[in-house]
Amino acid sequence: MHDPSRLDEANTGYGCEHPGTGIAAVPGGARLSWLRPAPLWRSRNDRLVRLLGDPTDDMRREWLRRLDAERGPDPARLVDRFAGRDSIAVALLGDPGEGDASQYCVVPVLQRVAGDTDLAVVVSDVVYPAGGLREYAAKLARPYADHPGPIYGLPGNHDWYDGLTGFMSWFCGTPPEEAAPADPGTGWKAFLRRLLWRRGPRGRTSDLEAARAWRPAEAQRALQPGPYCAIDAGPVRLVLIDTGIRGALDREQGEWLRDSLFAADRPTIVLTGKPLITYAEHHPCPIEDGGTVAELVRDPRASVVAVIGGDDHNYQRYPVRLADGREILHLVAGGSGAYLSATHPIPNVDVLAPECTEEDFRCYPLRGDSLAHFSRRYDALRRFGTGTAVVSPADATTIMAERIGIAPPRTGTPPAEISPRARRAAERVLGGPKGRSENWTSVLYDTDRPPMLKSFLRLDATAAEIRIDCWAATGCLEHERDPVLEDRIVARPGADGRWTWASATPGRAHP
Protein backbone atom coordinates (compact mmCIF):
# COMPACT_ATOMS: atom_id res chain seq x y z
CA MET A 1 0.00 0.00 0.00
CA HIS A 2 1.03 3.62 -0.50
CA ASP A 3 1.77 5.99 2.36
CA PRO A 4 -0.74 8.74 3.21
CA SER A 5 -0.78 11.98 1.28
CA ARG A 6 0.87 13.90 4.10
CA LEU A 7 4.00 11.83 3.43
CA ASP A 8 3.98 12.10 -0.35
CA GLU A 9 2.24 14.67 -2.56
CA ALA A 10 2.08 12.12 -5.38
CA ASN A 11 -0.31 10.02 -3.31
CA THR A 12 -3.03 12.65 -3.66
CA GLY A 13 -3.25 11.82 -7.37
CA TYR A 14 -1.78 15.09 -8.65
CA GLY A 15 0.20 14.37 -11.77
CA CYS A 16 -1.81 11.21 -12.43
CA GLU A 17 -0.67 9.75 -15.76
CA HIS A 18 -3.04 6.79 -16.05
CA PRO A 19 -6.68 7.04 -14.93
CA GLY A 20 -7.90 3.91 -13.20
CA THR A 21 -10.22 1.15 -14.30
CA GLY A 22 -13.01 2.46 -12.08
CA ILE A 23 -13.42 5.60 -14.15
CA ALA A 24 -13.45 3.53 -17.34
CA ALA A 25 -16.20 1.31 -15.90
CA VAL A 26 -18.79 4.08 -15.65
CA PRO A 27 -21.80 2.84 -17.65
CA GLY A 28 -22.51 4.82 -20.79
CA GLY A 29 -20.43 7.78 -19.72
CA ALA A 30 -22.98 8.67 -17.02
CA ARG A 31 -22.38 11.93 -15.19
CA LEU A 32 -24.46 13.72 -12.61
CA SER A 33 -23.91 17.45 -13.02
CA TRP A 34 -25.16 19.72 -10.26
CA LEU A 35 -24.86 22.65 -12.66
CA ARG A 36 -27.92 21.42 -14.51
CA PRO A 37 -31.31 22.61 -13.30
CA ALA A 38 -32.97 19.15 -13.26
CA PRO A 39 -31.08 17.69 -10.24
CA LEU A 40 -31.56 20.91 -8.30
CA TRP A 41 -35.28 20.99 -9.06
CA ARG A 42 -35.70 17.35 -8.06
CA SER A 43 -34.00 18.20 -4.75
CA ARG A 44 -36.32 21.12 -4.01
CA ASN A 45 -37.89 19.48 -0.94
CA ASP A 46 -34.77 20.46 0.99
CA ARG A 47 -35.64 24.13 0.53
CA LEU A 48 -39.33 23.62 1.08
CA VAL A 49 -38.87 22.17 4.57
CA ARG A 50 -36.72 25.14 5.55
CA LEU A 51 -39.46 27.57 4.53
CA LEU A 52 -42.67 25.63 5.12
CA GLY A 53 -41.95 23.04 7.81
CA ASP A 54 -40.80 19.43 7.73
CA PRO A 55 -43.27 16.49 7.55
CA THR A 56 -40.49 13.88 7.74
CA ASP A 57 -41.18 12.77 11.32
CA ASP A 58 -44.84 12.03 10.62
CA MET A 59 -43.98 10.24 7.36
CA ARG A 60 -41.40 8.09 9.14
CA ARG A 61 -43.92 7.14 11.81
CA GLU A 62 -46.35 6.04 9.12
CA TRP A 63 -43.72 3.96 7.32
CA LEU A 64 -42.96 2.10 10.54
CA ARG A 65 -46.65 1.65 11.33
CA ARG A 66 -47.04 -0.06 7.96
CA LEU A 67 -44.03 -2.31 8.58
CA ASP A 68 -45.26 -3.28 12.04
CA ALA A 69 -48.76 -3.97 10.73
CA GLU A 70 -47.33 -6.35 8.15
CA ARG A 71 -44.66 -8.11 10.24
CA GLY A 72 -45.72 -7.52 13.82
CA PRO A 73 -44.32 -4.98 16.31
CA ASP A 74 -40.52 -4.87 16.47
CA PRO A 75 -39.49 -2.51 19.28
CA ALA A 76 -35.84 -3.60 19.20
CA ARG A 77 -35.45 -3.11 15.42
CA LEU A 78 -32.44 -5.39 15.57
CA VAL A 79 -30.57 -7.25 12.82
CA ASP A 80 -29.08 -10.32 14.51
CA ARG A 81 -27.61 -11.99 11.43
CA PHE A 82 -24.04 -11.54 12.74
CA ALA A 83 -24.69 -12.19 16.42
CA GLY A 84 -22.19 -14.40 18.19
CA ARG A 85 -19.28 -13.55 15.93
CA ASP A 86 -15.84 -13.22 17.54
CA SER A 87 -14.73 -10.72 14.91
CA ILE A 88 -16.37 -8.54 12.31
CA ALA A 89 -15.26 -6.53 9.28
CA VAL A 90 -17.45 -3.78 7.86
CA ALA A 91 -17.07 -1.47 4.85
CA LEU A 92 -18.59 1.98 5.40
CA LEU A 93 -19.52 3.98 2.31
CA GLY A 94 -20.62 7.55 2.86
CA ASP A 95 -22.81 9.43 0.35
CA PRO A 96 -21.81 7.26 -2.62
CA GLY A 97 -24.65 7.34 -5.10
CA GLU A 98 -23.95 9.70 -8.00
CA GLY A 99 -23.48 6.80 -10.40
CA ASP A 100 -20.62 8.48 -12.24
CA ALA A 101 -16.82 8.47 -12.09
CA SER A 102 -16.71 9.99 -8.62
CA GLN A 103 -18.49 6.86 -7.33
CA TYR A 104 -16.95 4.25 -9.61
CA CYS A 105 -13.37 5.32 -8.86
CA VAL A 106 -13.89 3.99 -5.33
CA VAL A 107 -14.96 0.51 -6.44
CA PRO A 108 -11.56 -1.03 -7.40
CA VAL A 109 -10.00 0.16 -4.14
CA LEU A 110 -12.99 -1.16 -2.19
CA GLN A 111 -12.65 -4.55 -3.85
CA ARG A 112 -8.93 -4.66 -3.15
CA VAL A 113 -8.86 -3.69 0.53
CA ALA A 114 -12.42 -4.39 1.70
CA GLY A 115 -13.69 -7.08 -0.64
CA ASP A 116 -13.54 -9.61 2.19
CA THR A 117 -15.67 -7.66 4.67
CA ASP A 118 -18.68 -9.38 6.21
CA LEU A 119 -21.08 -6.56 5.39
CA ALA A 120 -21.23 -2.99 4.17
CA VAL A 121 -23.28 -0.02 5.32
CA VAL A 122 -24.14 2.99 3.21
CA VAL A 123 -23.94 5.97 5.56
CA SER A 124 -26.32 8.63 4.20
CA ASP A 125 -27.54 9.55 0.68
CA VAL A 126 -27.69 6.15 -0.96
CA VAL A 127 -28.61 7.58 -4.37
CA TYR A 128 -28.59 11.06 -5.87
CA PRO A 129 -30.13 13.42 -6.64
CA ALA A 130 -33.53 12.54 -5.13
CA GLY A 131 -33.94 8.88 -4.26
CA GLY A 132 -36.22 6.67 -6.34
CA LEU A 133 -36.11 2.90 -6.76
CA ARG A 134 -35.32 3.23 -10.46
CA GLU A 135 -31.91 4.64 -9.51
CA TYR A 136 -30.86 1.68 -7.36
CA ALA A 137 -29.66 -0.57 -10.17
CA ALA A 138 -27.19 1.98 -11.55
CA LYS A 139 -26.17 3.68 -8.31
CA LEU A 140 -26.06 0.90 -5.72
CA ALA A 141 -26.47 -2.64 -7.06
CA ARG A 142 -24.28 -2.39 -10.17
CA PRO A 143 -21.29 -0.53 -8.65
CA TYR A 144 -21.09 -3.00 -5.74
CA ALA A 145 -22.16 -6.12 -7.64
CA ASP A 146 -19.01 -7.95 -6.57
CA HIS A 147 -19.22 -7.19 -2.86
CA PRO A 148 -19.98 -10.62 -1.40
CA GLY A 149 -21.82 -9.58 1.75
CA PRO A 150 -25.09 -7.78 2.41
CA ILE A 151 -25.29 -3.99 2.17
CA TYR A 152 -27.37 -2.16 4.76
CA GLY A 153 -28.14 1.53 4.77
CA LEU A 154 -29.40 4.58 6.56
CA PRO A 155 -31.12 7.36 4.66
CA GLY A 156 -29.72 10.81 4.04
CA ASN A 157 -31.66 13.90 3.13
CA HIS A 158 -31.56 13.07 -0.59
CA ASP A 159 -33.15 9.67 0.05
CA TRP A 160 -36.13 11.48 1.57
CA TYR A 161 -36.83 13.54 -1.55
CA ASP A 162 -39.00 10.72 -2.93
CA GLY A 163 -40.76 10.24 0.42
CA LEU A 164 -38.29 7.40 1.19
CA THR A 165 -40.09 5.03 -1.19
CA GLY A 166 -36.94 3.77 -2.93
CA PHE A 167 -35.08 3.22 0.32
CA MET A 168 -37.99 1.41 1.98
CA SER A 169 -38.45 -0.92 -0.97
CA TRP A 170 -34.78 -1.83 -1.40
CA PHE A 171 -33.69 -2.06 2.24
CA CYS A 172 -36.90 -2.80 4.14
CA GLY A 173 -38.89 -4.91 1.68
CA THR A 174 -41.97 -2.74 1.19
CA PRO A 175 -43.80 -3.29 -2.13
CA PRO A 176 -42.18 -1.23 -4.93
CA GLU A 177 -45.51 0.28 -5.94
CA GLU A 178 -46.37 1.49 -2.45
CA ALA A 179 -46.86 5.24 -2.26
CA ALA A 180 -45.16 7.46 0.28
CA PRO A 181 -47.20 8.46 3.34
CA ALA A 182 -49.30 11.56 2.93
CA ASP A 183 -48.27 14.85 4.51
CA PRO A 184 -50.65 15.22 7.50
CA GLY A 185 -49.89 18.88 8.13
CA THR A 186 -52.56 21.57 8.42
CA GLY A 187 -52.57 25.29 7.73
CA TRP A 188 -51.38 27.42 4.85
CA LYS A 189 -47.75 26.30 5.07
CA ALA A 190 -48.74 22.65 4.79
CA PHE A 191 -51.02 23.53 1.86
CA LEU A 192 -48.16 25.23 -0.01
CA ARG A 193 -45.80 22.43 0.89
CA ARG A 194 -48.13 19.80 -0.56
CA LEU A 195 -48.63 21.94 -3.65
CA LEU A 196 -44.89 22.24 -4.37
CA TRP A 197 -43.64 18.97 -2.86
CA ARG A 198 -41.75 16.58 -5.10
CA ARG A 199 -43.40 13.18 -5.06
CA GLY A 200 -40.94 10.73 -6.47
CA PRO A 201 -42.04 8.34 -9.20
CA ARG A 202 -43.49 5.11 -7.87
CA GLY A 203 -41.27 2.12 -8.21
CA ARG A 204 -42.16 -0.98 -10.13
CA THR A 205 -41.42 -4.63 -9.53
CA SER A 206 -39.30 -4.55 -12.68
CA ASP A 207 -37.12 -1.81 -11.10
CA LEU A 208 -36.48 -4.00 -8.09
CA GLU A 209 -35.75 -7.03 -10.23
CA ALA A 210 -33.33 -5.06 -12.39
CA ALA A 211 -31.38 -3.99 -9.32
CA ARG A 212 -31.37 -7.43 -7.73
CA ALA A 213 -30.06 -8.95 -10.94
CA TRP A 214 -26.71 -7.27 -10.20
CA ARG A 215 -26.57 -8.79 -6.70
CA PRO A 216 -28.46 -12.10 -7.03
CA ALA A 217 -26.75 -14.20 -4.35
CA GLU A 218 -28.71 -14.89 -1.20
CA ALA A 219 -25.66 -13.91 0.88
CA GLN A 220 -25.84 -10.46 -0.70
CA ARG A 221 -29.42 -9.80 0.37
CA ALA A 222 -30.07 -7.47 3.28
CA LEU A 223 -33.39 -6.88 4.98
CA GLN A 224 -33.57 -4.37 7.81
CA PRO A 225 -36.48 -3.52 10.11
CA GLY A 226 -36.76 0.15 9.23
CA PRO A 227 -34.83 3.27 8.26
CA TYR A 228 -33.31 3.19 11.74
CA CYS A 229 -32.15 -0.05 13.32
CA ALA A 230 -29.35 -1.75 15.22
CA ILE A 231 -27.02 -4.43 13.89
CA ASP A 232 -25.59 -6.96 16.32
CA ALA A 233 -22.14 -7.21 14.77
CA GLY A 234 -20.50 -9.65 17.15
CA PRO A 235 -17.98 -7.74 19.30
CA VAL A 236 -19.61 -4.37 18.52
CA ARG A 237 -23.11 -3.04 17.98
CA LEU A 238 -23.86 -0.73 15.06
CA VAL A 239 -26.73 1.69 15.64
CA LEU A 240 -28.08 3.31 12.46
CA ILE A 241 -30.21 6.43 12.88
CA ASP A 242 -32.33 8.32 10.36
CA THR A 243 -31.83 12.08 10.64
CA GLY A 244 -34.33 12.90 7.88
CA ILE A 245 -33.94 16.05 5.81
CA ARG A 246 -33.00 18.60 8.45
CA GLY A 247 -30.87 16.49 10.81
CA ALA A 248 -33.30 15.64 13.62
CA LEU A 249 -35.02 12.62 15.20
CA ASP A 250 -38.68 12.06 15.89
CA ARG A 251 -39.83 11.30 19.43
CA GLU A 252 -40.20 7.54 18.94
CA GLN A 253 -36.80 7.17 17.32
CA GLY A 254 -35.24 9.17 20.15
CA GLU A 255 -36.78 6.84 22.73
CA TRP A 256 -35.62 3.80 20.76
CA LEU A 257 -32.10 5.25 20.49
CA ARG A 258 -31.91 5.89 24.23
CA ASP A 259 -33.08 2.36 25.03
CA SER A 260 -30.67 0.84 22.48
CA LEU A 261 -27.65 2.77 23.75
CA PHE A 262 -28.34 2.23 27.45
CA ALA A 263 -29.05 -1.48 27.05
CA ALA A 264 -25.98 -2.28 24.94
CA ASP A 265 -23.55 -4.71 26.51
CA ARG A 266 -20.67 -4.08 24.14
CA PRO A 267 -18.92 -1.13 22.43
CA THR A 268 -21.41 0.75 20.28
CA ILE A 269 -20.79 2.69 17.08
CA VAL A 270 -23.51 5.13 16.02
CA LEU A 271 -23.92 5.71 12.28
CA THR A 272 -25.84 8.84 11.37
CA GLY A 273 -26.99 10.68 8.27
CA LYS A 274 -25.49 13.93 9.54
CA PRO A 275 -22.34 14.15 11.69
CA LEU A 276 -22.44 15.49 15.24
CA ILE A 277 -19.13 17.32 14.74
CA THR A 278 -18.03 18.71 11.39
CA TYR A 279 -15.94 21.67 10.27
CA ALA A 280 -14.89 22.01 13.95
CA GLU A 281 -18.47 22.78 14.97
CA HIS A 282 -20.98 20.85 17.07
CA HIS A 283 -24.27 19.78 15.49
CA PRO A 284 -26.04 17.99 18.36
CA CYS A 285 -29.04 16.66 16.37
CA PRO A 286 -32.23 17.62 18.24
CA ILE A 287 -34.87 15.09 19.21
CA GLU A 288 -38.55 15.94 18.99
CA ASP A 289 -39.91 17.05 22.40
CA GLY A 290 -36.47 17.62 23.88
CA GLY A 291 -32.91 16.38 24.18
CA THR A 292 -30.28 15.70 21.54
CA VAL A 293 -28.43 12.75 20.08
CA ALA A 294 -25.16 14.31 21.30
CA GLU A 295 -26.42 14.15 24.88
CA LEU A 296 -27.37 10.49 24.52
CA VAL A 297 -24.05 9.34 23.04
CA ARG A 298 -22.13 11.19 25.79
CA ASP A 299 -24.27 9.79 28.60
CA PRO A 300 -22.11 7.51 30.80
CA ARG A 301 -24.90 4.90 30.74
CA ALA A 302 -24.25 4.46 27.01
CA SER A 303 -21.32 2.44 25.68
CA VAL A 304 -20.67 4.57 22.60
CA VAL A 305 -17.06 4.56 21.41
CA ALA A 306 -17.55 6.21 18.00
CA VAL A 307 -20.02 8.27 15.98
CA ILE A 308 -19.67 8.21 12.18
CA GLY A 309 -21.72 10.50 9.95
CA GLY A 310 -22.08 11.25 6.27
CA ASP A 311 -23.51 14.32 4.48
CA ASP A 312 -20.24 16.28 4.19
CA HIS A 313 -18.33 14.70 1.33
CA ASN A 314 -14.87 14.29 2.81
CA TYR A 315 -13.11 12.65 5.76
CA GLN A 316 -12.64 14.33 9.15
CA ARG A 317 -11.44 12.79 12.40
CA TYR A 318 -12.13 14.24 15.87
CA PRO A 319 -11.09 12.12 18.90
CA VAL A 320 -13.13 13.74 21.70
CA ARG A 321 -12.05 13.43 25.34
CA LEU A 322 -14.88 13.94 27.79
CA ALA A 323 -14.48 15.49 31.23
CA ASP A 324 -14.95 12.11 32.94
CA GLY A 325 -12.02 10.59 31.04
CA ARG A 326 -13.97 8.68 28.39
CA GLU A 327 -13.17 9.06 24.68
CA ILE A 328 -15.61 9.11 21.77
CA LEU A 329 -14.29 9.18 18.24
CA HIS A 330 -16.26 11.41 15.86
CA LEU A 331 -15.73 10.83 12.13
CA VAL A 332 -17.11 12.50 9.05
CA ALA A 333 -17.09 9.86 6.33
CA GLY A 334 -19.10 11.08 3.36
CA GLY A 335 -16.44 10.91 0.67
CA SER A 336 -17.39 7.71 -1.17
CA GLY A 337 -18.88 9.05 -4.38
CA ALA A 338 -20.56 12.45 -4.33
CA TYR A 339 -18.94 15.75 -5.27
CA LEU A 340 -16.06 16.68 -2.96
CA SER A 341 -16.76 18.98 0.00
CA ALA A 342 -13.82 21.33 0.50
CA THR A 343 -11.70 20.84 3.63
CA HIS A 344 -9.83 24.15 3.41
CA PRO A 345 -12.69 25.96 5.25
CA ILE A 346 -11.99 23.83 8.36
CA PRO A 347 -10.50 26.17 10.99
CA ASN A 348 -7.82 25.34 13.53
CA VAL A 349 -9.44 22.57 15.57
CA ASP A 350 -8.02 23.99 18.79
CA VAL A 351 -11.34 25.87 18.90
CA LEU A 352 -12.74 22.59 20.30
CA ALA A 353 -10.09 22.29 23.03
CA PRO A 354 -9.80 20.76 25.51
CA GLU A 355 -12.07 18.05 24.11
CA CYS A 356 -10.21 17.87 20.82
CA THR A 357 -7.12 19.62 19.45
CA GLU A 358 -5.57 20.28 16.08
CA GLU A 359 -2.80 17.79 16.85
CA ASP A 360 -5.34 14.95 17.10
CA PHE A 361 -7.40 16.02 14.08
CA ARG A 362 -7.08 14.52 10.61
CA CYS A 363 -8.83 15.25 7.34
CA TYR A 364 -8.76 14.04 3.77
CA PRO A 365 -8.02 15.72 1.53
CA LEU A 366 -5.53 17.80 3.46
CA ARG A 367 -6.54 21.43 3.63
CA GLY A 368 -3.76 22.46 1.26
CA ASP A 369 -4.64 19.76 -1.25
CA SER A 370 -8.26 20.90 -1.08
CA LEU A 371 -7.19 24.48 -1.83
CA ALA A 372 -5.04 23.31 -4.74
CA HIS A 373 -7.85 21.16 -6.13
CA PHE A 374 -10.47 23.88 -5.94
CA SER A 375 -8.11 26.44 -7.43
CA ARG A 376 -7.87 24.22 -10.51
CA ARG A 377 -11.63 24.02 -10.77
CA TYR A 378 -11.93 27.77 -10.18
CA ASP A 379 -9.43 28.37 -12.95
CA ALA A 380 -11.22 26.04 -15.36
CA LEU A 381 -14.64 27.60 -14.78
CA ARG A 382 -13.81 31.25 -14.17
CA ARG A 383 -10.48 31.82 -15.89
CA PHE A 384 -11.17 29.66 -18.96
CA GLY A 385 -8.31 27.30 -18.08
CA THR A 386 -5.60 29.93 -18.40
CA GLY A 387 -3.76 28.70 -15.32
CA THR A 388 -3.71 32.17 -13.74
CA ALA A 389 -5.79 31.04 -10.76
CA VAL A 390 -4.05 27.71 -10.11
CA VAL A 391 -2.24 27.20 -6.79
CA SER A 392 0.23 24.33 -6.64
CA PRO A 393 -0.12 21.74 -3.86
CA ALA A 394 3.24 22.84 -2.39
CA ASP A 395 2.21 26.50 -2.35
CA ALA A 396 -1.24 25.63 -0.99
CA THR A 397 0.26 23.56 1.82
CA THR A 398 2.23 26.54 3.09
CA ILE A 399 -0.58 29.06 2.55
CA MET A 400 -3.10 27.00 4.53
CA ALA A 401 -0.61 26.41 7.37
CA GLU A 402 -0.03 30.16 7.58
CA ARG A 403 -3.70 30.97 7.37
CA ILE A 404 -4.91 28.81 10.28
CA GLY A 405 -1.72 28.66 12.31
CA ILE A 406 -0.63 25.03 12.09
CA ALA A 407 2.56 23.18 11.24
CA PRO A 408 2.52 22.17 7.56
CA PRO A 409 1.47 18.51 7.32
CA ARG A 410 4.17 17.92 4.70
CA THR A 411 6.96 20.04 3.27
CA GLY A 412 5.60 22.95 1.27
CA THR A 413 7.08 25.88 -0.59
CA PRO A 414 9.11 28.20 1.66
CA PRO A 415 6.92 31.25 2.33
CA ALA A 416 9.33 33.71 0.74
CA GLU A 417 9.26 31.75 -2.51
CA ILE A 418 5.47 31.85 -3.01
CA SER A 419 4.65 34.30 -5.76
CA PRO A 420 2.21 37.20 -5.31
CA ARG A 421 0.12 35.66 -8.10
CA ALA A 422 -0.23 32.39 -6.19
CA ARG A 423 -1.26 34.23 -3.02
CA ARG A 424 -3.85 36.27 -4.91
CA ALA A 425 -5.21 33.12 -6.52
CA ALA A 426 -5.49 31.44 -3.12
CA GLU A 427 -7.41 34.39 -1.67
CA ARG A 428 -9.94 34.18 -4.49
CA VAL A 429 -10.72 30.57 -3.58
CA LEU A 430 -10.52 31.17 0.16
CA GLY A 431 -12.84 34.17 0.11
CA GLY A 432 -10.45 36.96 1.10
CA PRO A 433 -7.98 37.42 3.96
CA LYS A 434 -10.72 37.48 6.62
CA GLY A 435 -13.27 35.38 4.85
CA ARG A 436 -14.01 31.71 4.64
CA SER A 437 -14.97 30.08 1.39
CA GLU A 438 -18.54 28.87 1.34
CA ASN A 439 -18.72 25.10 1.24
CA TRP A 440 -21.80 25.23 -0.96
CA THR A 441 -19.53 26.29 -3.82
CA SER A 442 -18.08 22.77 -3.71
CA VAL A 443 -21.02 21.61 -5.80
CA LEU A 444 -19.99 24.02 -8.58
CA TYR A 445 -16.48 22.58 -8.76
CA ASP A 446 -17.38 18.90 -9.10
CA THR A 447 -15.14 16.92 -11.43
CA ASP A 448 -14.85 13.39 -12.79
CA ARG A 449 -11.11 13.55 -13.44
CA PRO A 450 -8.20 12.65 -11.14
CA PRO A 451 -7.37 13.55 -8.52
CA MET A 452 -10.79 12.43 -7.27
CA LEU A 453 -9.88 12.65 -3.55
CA LYS A 454 -12.58 10.15 -2.49
CA SER A 455 -12.48 7.87 0.54
CA PHE A 456 -14.26 5.13 2.47
CA LEU A 457 -13.78 3.34 5.78
CA ARG A 458 -13.02 -0.20 6.79
CA LEU A 459 -13.95 -1.20 10.34
CA ASP A 460 -12.43 -4.31 11.96
CA ALA A 461 -13.41 -5.30 15.48
CA THR A 462 -12.69 -7.99 18.04
CA ALA A 463 -13.18 -8.02 21.79
CA ALA A 464 -9.64 -6.69 22.16
CA GLU A 465 -9.41 -4.06 19.41
CA ILE A 466 -11.41 -1.81 17.11
CA ARG A 467 -9.57 -0.50 14.08
CA ILE A 468 -10.87 2.01 11.55
CA ASP A 469 -8.99 2.63 8.31
CA CYS A 470 -9.65 5.48 5.91
CA TRP A 471 -8.69 4.43 2.39
CA ALA A 472 -8.26 6.99 -0.36
CA ALA A 473 -9.49 6.64 -3.93
CA THR A 474 -7.67 9.07 -6.21
CA GLY A 475 -8.93 7.70 -9.53
CA CYS A 476 -5.37 6.80 -10.58
CA LEU A 477 -4.39 3.34 -11.78
CA GLU A 478 -1.34 3.10 -9.53
CA HIS A 479 -3.49 3.75 -6.45
CA GLU A 480 -5.96 1.07 -7.50
CA ARG A 481 -3.09 -1.43 -7.61
CA ASP A 482 -1.47 -0.16 -4.40
CA PRO A 483 -4.10 1.80 -2.48
CA VAL A 484 -3.34 4.74 -0.21
CA LEU A 485 -4.01 4.20 3.50
CA GLU A 486 -4.81 7.77 4.45
CA ASP A 487 -5.61 7.30 8.14
CA ARG A 488 -5.77 4.56 10.76
CA ILE A 489 -7.02 4.86 14.31
CA VAL A 490 -7.20 2.04 16.85
CA ALA A 491 -9.08 1.62 20.12
CA ARG A 492 -8.32 -0.84 22.90
CA PRO A 493 -9.94 -1.33 26.30
CA GLY A 494 -8.07 -0.35 29.44
CA ALA A 495 -8.07 -2.03 32.81
CA ASP A 496 -11.17 -0.05 33.75
CA GLY A 497 -13.00 -1.27 30.63
CA ARG A 498 -12.91 2.11 28.92
CA TRP A 499 -11.83 2.23 25.29
CA THR A 500 -9.04 4.62 24.31
CA TRP A 501 -8.28 5.72 20.75
CA ALA A 502 -4.77 6.16 19.36
CA SER A 503 -3.56 7.15 15.91
CA ALA A 504 -1.73 4.39 14.08
CA THR A 505 -1.12 6.12 10.73
CA PRO A 506 2.39 6.46 9.34
CA GLY A 507 3.69 9.98 8.99
CA ARG A 508 3.95 13.20 10.91
CA ALA A 509 2.03 13.84 14.08
CA HIS A 510 0.32 16.94 12.70
CA PRO A 511 -2.49 16.57 10.15
From TrEMBL:
Residues 90-315 form the Calcineurin-like phosphoesterase domain. It holds the Pfam family Metallophos. It comes from Pseudonocardia halophobica. One of its GO terms (molecular function) is hydrolase activity. Signal peptide: none annotated. This is Metallophosphoesterase.
